[in-house]
Specification:
2 domains, 185 residues, OB fold (Dihydrolipoamide Acetyltransferase, E2P), globular
Length: 185
């Protein structure tokens, strides 16, 4: 470059405006990226590993982690009959047969109003939530289906429909009472 390509002219407001605009765009872009990262971080799945040491009912268990800390887990995407309800004890026993004393992995994002982790419980490659539905021991909890990934939502809904058609578990009854209706009584 030669000396004539450099300008010694003072910078004026009109020459600084493009610089200020590009700086604002950069700042806005960085702010949006930070905000998106914060939003994504709140929806990232967490994972808990441990041994099941308690089964309260057909959709609630206690998992003891490696630090021997107990965690109450509400199985995501399902609602099982209450203990005092028809099939309540069978649902609890079925879940116990699936998970009690076994090492599980719980994939979760949030806790409920009682402080329980709401999560998908995996025993090896078996989804215990889906198994409860497939065996006619729980409903797919459609009130909270928006919290499920689309593929999981479809598989849980299909499993309930198949259990109804096969009349297994609680679907053997003519008109089983949904747990959310039973709780309102």
């Amino acid at each position: 470059m030669n000396a004539s390509s450099y300008s010694n002219a003072p910078r004026t407001a009109s020459t600084l405006q493009p610089l200020a605009a590009s700086g604002r765009r950069l700042l806005l872009g960085l702010s949006l990226a930070l905000l998106a990262g914060t939003c994504l971080a709140s929806t990232v799945d967490k994972q808990l590993e441990g041994r099941v040491v308690g089964v309260a009912d057909g959709d609630t268990i206690t998992v003891l982690d490696q630090a021997t800390q107990p965690h109450k887990i509400r199985l995501a995407g399902i609602d099982a009959p209450e203990k005092r309800q028809a099939f309540g004890q069978r649902a609890k026993q079925n879940l116990s047969d699936l998970v009690y004393g076994k090492n599980v992995s719980v994939v979760w994002r949030k806790k409920d109003r009682y402080g329980r982790i709401i999560g998908k419980v995996m025993v090896g490659q078996v989804d215990a939530c889906l198994a409860q539905i497939s065996q006619g021991m729980a409903w797919h909890y459609k009130q909270y289906e928006k919290d499920q990934p689309a593929a999981e939502r479809r598989s849980y809904a299909a499993a309930e429909q198949q259990a109804r058609q096969r009349e297994v578990g609680l679907w053997h009854e003519e008109q089983p009472t949904a747990p959310w209706d039973f709780r309102r009584r």
